[in-house]
Amino acid sequence: MLLAAGQLREHRLKVTPQRLAIFHMLSNTKSHPSAEMIYNSLRETHPTMSLATVYKTLDALVKASLIQQINVGEDAFRYDANTDSHPHIICTHCHQVYDLETDELPDLKALVAEKTHFRLSHEQLYFYGTCPDCQSEIH
Questions:
Q1: Residues that bind Zn(2+), according to the entry (predicted)?
Q2: Is residue 39 part of an annotated ligand binding site?
Q3: Has 52 been labeled as part of a binding site?
Q4: Binding residue per annotation — 134?
Q5: Does residue 27 carry a pLDDT above 70?
Q6: This prediction's pTM
Q7: Neighbours of 68 (CB within 10 A)
Q8: Which strand (E) or helix (H) includes residue 133?
Q9: For 56-83, what is each residue's pLDDT tens digit?
Q10: Which positions ≥6 away from 4 have C-beta within 8 Å?
């Protein structure tokens, strides 16, 4: 938690128990939870924390570039503490979000910049499909 507190302070964010809990939870999961999932996960240990507080905290953490927001469609968002540039793959059935580990992304970014003559600042790459678990349930 000391590391999390330092990161919040470094980005000029007030250190509160709620912010620490949310940032710590996101830093220790690969599940890309929604605000509601975070709220439900933390409400037993933080009973006075509201869902509005979770949303406001997530917004502050995104603006500080401490986490990233993943748009899973239809105004639904998930959150990831891994702010390194990496693509995500989203199941269109269960809506699970997975990190896609690949070394080709810098090559793709360079190719896009070369072809379009854009000076790229960042990228977000999403792939959509049906995960293996949902495939087995469908058949």
A1: 91, 94, 131, 134
A2: no
A3: no
A4: yes
A5: yes
A6: 0.82
A7: 21
A8: helix 132-138
A9: 999 999 999 999 999 887 778 999 999 8
A10: 20, 23, 24, 27
